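Problem 12. The chain below contains 82 residues. Write out its predicted structure in token notation.
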Amino acid sequence: MTYQVNAWLERPQPLLQVTDKRTGQVLIDWGPEQVRAMLDAGELRVEDLRQEGPALQAQVRELFLCDTARQLGQERDLPLKR
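Solution.
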């Protein structure tokens, strides 16, 4: 599966999406509150998403892990701890 990262991180209301490049299905869709919190905590950096090849692939894996942990935390009504 090939992914496309759509990130608008330098806007006043930052957004981040990861989509399946073949189908266009949105796999991760983070709004301003979540993106801002991750940027402020240093968990997400603009520079990380400007990489190419294996480095960007590793970053996308990290985004999937963060999204899964967030979803599990919401299901259990627990804060996400890193």
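Discussion. The chain has a mean pLDDT of 84. Students who got a different answer should revisit the alignment rule from Section 12.3.
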